[in-house]
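# step 3/5: fold
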Amino acid sequence: MWTAILISALSMTAIVAARYLATSGLFAFATGRRLPGYHAKLGRQIRREIGWSLVSAAIYGIPAGIVAWGWQERGWTRIYAKWDALPLWYLPLAPLIYLFLHDSWFYWTHRLMHRPKLFRAMHAVHHASRPPTAWAAMSFHPWEALTGAIVIPLLVFVIPIHIAMLSLVLLVMTVMGVTNHMGWELFPKRLVHSALGGWLITASHHQRHHEEYRCNYGLYFRFWDRLCGTDKGLSTRI
């Protein structure tokens, strides 16, 4: 049993690392085409970002591997594979619930980590990326990485979700994490400045967090920032 768990944890770590390298590499390449010179003189910073991110990949991968083993071998989780196991209307609802709960956890832990002592101990590694790059998406101190790594593995024990919808959640988590750190806006202005865009976090919103630190703490949605008065709008630099 322990050998199977170890293999699952190592396999998932390799998958998370490969996903990070592929996604961040793709968007870093796109950044180089969109903003020539953006990465100039950032070689040392980028190497540091990749190093921290690969450590984070293990911290994310190990609990994910244990959960994957528990789902496949013991049926411990609420992940299901049959499309008709629950009503079809629940399929698109589950990822929205997961994203909202993940966003809520992220907002409050992220805001807490901006208290001076916790910032120095946990969050300064991430903010050492000046300016942030696509490689900074998982550039976390291990303690910060741990706060992010436990959320989805805990949710799958409580809230039912189809395996395909869980994959969608992980895709959104990966893409938004990378694109919000590129230094330029991927999404069209008409979306970013629309009524819908006013509730979504994109690079323009998160860039301002990296500029001013004590604002714009959310991950996917601006709900908590707006409710708590920490939303300072979009960066004017991208």
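# step 4/5: annotate
Strands lie at 79-80, 161-162.
# step 5/5: archive (pending)
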